[in-house]
Design goal:
Radius of gyration: 19 Å
Order of helices and strands: HHEEHHHHHHHHH
Strand order of the largest sheet: 1-2
Shape: globular
Oligomer: single chain
Structural class: mainly alpha
Distance between the termini: 16 Å
Largest sheet: 2 strands, antiparallel
Number of helices: 11
Number of domains: 1
Strand content: under 5%
Length: 276
């Protein structure tokens, strides 16, 4: 079975892609109660992290070259964009493997990675419209944010956010392929969730890590999920460093996509052998 890299634009059948995105978008919009609970949870986290950073700074204006307002902005925007990123593919894929429904997915003419990507893209769009943008506007009324003054920084942030979504998807996709070898995926799901949240800088920015851990985290693809767009947004990544930061995200997208193709081929062969 041939496979291509799960990157938008590589799949020729645009109508199939749009149908999957639209179906996922509609599915996301159906669960309004979950949406309200998610918004409330995000708002509570924003307020909690605001007071946490105020306490950590202890009245100081600067720490590690970052102002308290920048730190609060980082934490706030992190909570706002967090729901955009996929995190539960391994449970979904694992469930379909156990029921045997995975056969309907991998026998389609559409590469399995792209199938999942288009579904997650629909959820991304739905979350952006129904959660991220409204929560950002709400945060402006309750939290003092340090917003970029340059349109170019906003543009770079938007591009980095989309690239961050791709990195997050590919990390989740690679992890989900473990379901072809494991009978129970809850353990690896929680392990991946914890590791990616910490090393991506979702809750604690990488600049406050101990030097050795910080250098280690900066070498991993997780930085491209949260830290890269957030650091660009608050100015921790200077304008002349933005091309390098975006380039690193693109590098990890290509590397993870290639690795995903290799693991997918191995997973399909294993499934075929077990299925006779």
């Amino acid at each position: 079975m041939s496979a291509i890299s799960p990157v938008p634009g590589f799949q020729s059948d645009f109508n199939v892609a749009w149908s999957l995105i639209r179906a996922s978008l509609k599915e996301k919009l159906v669960y309004r109660f979950d949406l309200i609970i998610g918004l409330l949870r995000t708002f509570i986290l924003i307020i909690v992290f605001r007071y946490l950073w105020l306490a950590l700074y202890g009245g100081r204006e600067m720490f590690a070259g970052v102002s308290v307002t920048q730190a609060i902005t980082y934490a706030t925007i992190s909570m706002v964009i967090g729901p955009l990123y996929p995190n539960s593919l391994i449970l979904d894929v694992g469930g379909r493997i156990r029921t045997g429904n995975i056969l309907f997915d991998i026998t389609r003419p559409l590469y399995y990675g792209n199938l999942l990507l288009f579904q997650m893209s629909g959820q991304f769009l739905a979350t952006l419209v129904t959660s991220t943008l409204p929560m950002f506007v709400l945060a402006l009324f309750f939290v003092e944010l340090s917003l970029p003054a340059s349109p170019l920084i906003w543009l770079a942030f938007g591009v980095s956010l989309l690239l961050g979504f791709m990195v997050a998807f590919l990390v989740d996709y690679l992890t989900s392929l473990a379901g072809f070898w494991l009978t129970e995926t809850w353990g690896i799901f929680f392990a991946k969730w914890s590791i990616s949240d910490v090393l991506s800088g979702k809750y604690l920015p990488l600049w406050i890590f101990p030097p050795l851990l910080r250098q280690f985290a900066l070498l991993l693809p997780f930085r491209g999920m949260s830290y890269s767009p957030l650091a660009i947004f608050i100015g921790q990544v200077t304008p002349d460093q933005i091309p390098l930061e975006l380039g690193l995200q693109v590098f990890w997208i290509v590397a993870l996509a290639l690795l995903g193709n290799i693991l997918y081929r191995a997973a399909v062969k294993k499934l075929a052998v077990q299925g006779g």
